[in-house]
Amino acid sequence: MSRTIDYGNLMHDAMRSLIRNVLLDVADNGLPGAHHFFITFDTAHPDAELADWLSDRYPDEMTVVMQHWYDGLEVTEDGFSITLNFGDAPEPLYVPYDAIRTFVDPSVEFGLRFEQQDEDSAEEASEDEATSEADVETLPQTRESELEVDEAPPQAAEIVSLDSFRKT
């Protein structure tokens, strides 16, 4: 079997590093201007930590909004912890980068989506298809006045595949 370069996973690692760097800057300097984040993550990820009532309410995924009020943002190599306000009840969360499904900053129409594949599908797919590809989303500008939990991720106006930028 010949060795191949796993570009899909390398791209995901680079995108997660981007998220980490953004969060490190926010932890040090706060959110600049109108920037705010919609972060959707897998609540069933083995390393995700959240209150039982939140995991019961959102057994698969949850979108949190980091905007006006947040506390205790700590960024590590593997994930970040933060306390967010859920209906006037502060709740601590720990989100590993591997659990993030989407990261969106609607103030500048920037978004990342990590494609999910289950292990059975990955084994059946060809080598090219077995690695996940990243999409960059262009989203309409929105303004949110309060931190909230959305049951559905933000709707994308246009999704541009990275394949369209590759030289052939």
3D architecture notes:
By secondary structure, the chain is of the alpha+beta class. It contains 4 helices and 10 strands; from the N terminus they run H-E-H-E-E-E-E-E-E-H-H-E-E-E. The strands form 2 sheets. The chain has a 7-stranded antiparallel β-sheet. The protein is globular, with a radius of gyration of 17 Å. The two termini are 26 Å apart.
- Which secondary-structure class do the elements indicate? alpha+beta
Please tell me how large the radius of gyration is.
17 Å
Number of helices: 4
Uncertain segments of ≥5 residues (pLDDT<50)? 119-158
Q: Mean pLDDT, as a whole number?
A: 77
The termini sit apart by: 26 Å
Oligomer: single chain
Principal-axis shape equals globular
Elements, N to C (H/E)? HEHEEEEEEHHEEE
What percent of the residues sit in helical stretches (DSSP H or I)?
Answer: 10-25%
Strand content: 25-35%
Largest sheet: 7 strands, antiparallel
The overall strand count is 10
**Going across the major beta sheet, what is the strand order?**
9-2-1-6-7-8-10
Itemize the secondary structure elements and their pairings.
Blueprint: H1 7-29, E1 37-42, H2 52-57, E2 61-66, E3 70-75, E4 79-86, E5 89-96, E6 100-105, E7 110-114, H3 119-124, H4 127-130, E8 134-138, E9 149-150, E10 158-161
Antiparallel strand pairs: 1-2, 1-6, 2-9, 3-4, 4-5, 6-7, 7-8, 8-10
